[in-house]
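FAQ: What does a ligand-bound record look like?

Like this one, built around D-galactaro-1,5-lactone:
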Amino acid sequence: MSHRILITGAAGVVGTLMRPRLAAPGRTLRLLDIAELPPAGDGEQVELVRASVTDQAAMQAACTGVDAVIHLGGHSLEQPWEQILDVNINGTHTVLEAARRAGVPRVVLASSNHAVGFEPRGDAEAADDLFPRPDTYYGVSKVAMEALGSLYADRYGLEVIGVRIGSCFERPKDVRMLATWLSPDDGARLFEACVSAPHKGFTLVWGVSDNTRRWFSLDGARALGYESLDNSEVFAAEVIAEHGEPAPDGPELNYIGGAWVTSAWDTAV
Ligand code: 15L
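The answer part, i.e. the structure of the complex:
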């Protein structure tokens, strides 16, 4: 088991969901964010670090003595290019470089379905290593994240796993997410597998629950020992009643990235 794990972006949506779920006896979670983090609860083994993923010195200090890094930090939605470049791309480089210098063996990178969002949906499950086809600058930053992970694995021997996360929320928020949902509990099971599975080099896996309407392969994650125990179908009736069925020829169900492929997201340019 990993005894000390650094989680970047720990105050974000996924970080907040993972904090209680990745806690384990004998383990310390070092939680890092630019935003304020809730203080340690009773008996909670956490170390709180207020820092930016773009701060090399702070990241190197944060990486010292950790067994694994789970890098969730960065913008989680589309932003103007300068911000994406600084926080998501330079930030990921900073984290990987800090991990290398501190001798951290394993880094798990939170990539996204938006790295391949412009891929039209076919009948077959999308493969774990589907070729990049980003739908936004945000998606480009996730492709860059994957490329940096691959470089640090090949050049420096870091063990790096990139997780193309579908939609990790308490519950699916729309009809597309009935396909792309990663339940928080499954997310924790997947990150646990990512930090503990024997693994060398760089691997890409999908981060998704075993949803009845799933679009993404589970092969890569299962090979790491991940077993999904959740299925969004339990929410299907209420989600469809709330949002209605999307247009059959609209982007929501016809591209992996859903509505992110539409011009509504161009506002960030
Ligand atoms: C992501 O990468 C986003 O960070 C998240 O907010 C969701 O929108 C998710 O993708 C999704 O595609 O549902």
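Follow-up question: can I read anything off the structure? Yes, for example: The mean pLDDT is 96.
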